[in-house]
């Protein structure tokens, strides 16, 4: 539903026979009006300190409308009010420090691209690109859909299924070239595309990461390109096509520490550290020694934390083995909230519920987090510029 249709519905309902507000609702209305009065009627000398007031006023006004109108016309306005825009963007509400920073620093762009089929509209809302990852948000608008845009729904019989309007597939073109064409036919060099749900059920956040840190002849992303995204939705025959202009908007700091650590017949080498307001990226190489067990590091993961013990949240990891038993790891995490003096990278393996198994469910601690088995010796500490 667009804003014009919503406003039309509100006007039509407002012309209807509106009953007298009950005392409790009248009291709530007066209270909210009083709050709005304190927001917009500060003395002149306080005007310079009112940076957040427009957002607060918008929230209060939305609360006032929803309290008044849903109490009077709950059936007619239930769906209309669900279409009201949230205060802030999808990135701003994401559980991702990099996307929040991009919003705060004014780095995001608005692709202004949408496609509609069968009464469903998908629109590209925001995008940001730092050379390592391109992130963009997508919103779905439809009259009758209540399910999530991403993921599966569990039915009453306990079986998962895809509701109508849920993403089933996504493919991209970089300046008109498929990922296979862009990577000259090398699947190992293909950029990695992933997506996850946003804070609202009808939103999703996509991210595309190149493979240029894996010791291949993989192309890094150009500083500027156009991404064409084709998205399939459950129950809709026609795919949705969106255009995302990408332009690098950060100046990244890159260092090549060449620091190593040794343990269990393996050497771990930190070849490259790159960070921006959007991501922290590490290029690691593992070399197998003469006494190294080729399977000892299967399923290896990493923890990156600063000197205060703050662990950077994981974004993606891509591993590429070589013929001599060595392998490269391209690791992306969220950026640090405060610039650290030092980062520590620790390798670990997850423990499984069945200690005799190498697959299956992870063993978790009392808080529900996977239990980490740190690998003695495979730890690197590096100064941050």
TrEMBL record:
Residues 253-358 form the DUF5643 domain. The chain crosses the membrane at residues 56-73. InterPro entries: DUF4179, DUF5643. Residues 48-139 form the DUF4179 domain. Signal peptide: none annotated. Keywords: Membrane, Transmembrane, Transmembrane helix. It comes from the Bacteria. Coiled coil: none annotated. This is DUF4179 domain-containing protein. It comes from Paenibacillus agri.
